[in-house]
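Quick one: structure tokens for this chain, please?
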Amino acid sequence: QVQLVESGGGLVQAGDSLRISCAASGSVAGRFEDYAMAWFRQAAGKEREFVAVINWSGVSTHYADSVQGRFTVSRDNTKNTVSLQMNGLKSEDTAVYYCAARSGIMRSIVRDYPYWGQGTQVTVSS
């Protein structure tokens, strides 16, 4: 069984920072280093969209243009966790943020990820 659990969401003001995290357990945790880990988000009434991804070692990352320079993805393979540091938050960053895992190389498409967390709400007030 694969389980991804996000935490750290909340209500912040525009310009604030927030850090959300995702903890892996089950079969993903046993081989965490085999998985690329990604963050997606879904705003109300919109499709789920790619935010950031990090490769198995943490050396390579890729970001959506909308968050480039403001968000930083990182991972700790000793703790089976991946985090997203969000700085300079804007109202348009308001969404449910999802952690996702896939075996192999980084991808930025929703359908390429078989494992998902339940999501954590991030709300940015302007």
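The longest helix spans residues 27-30.
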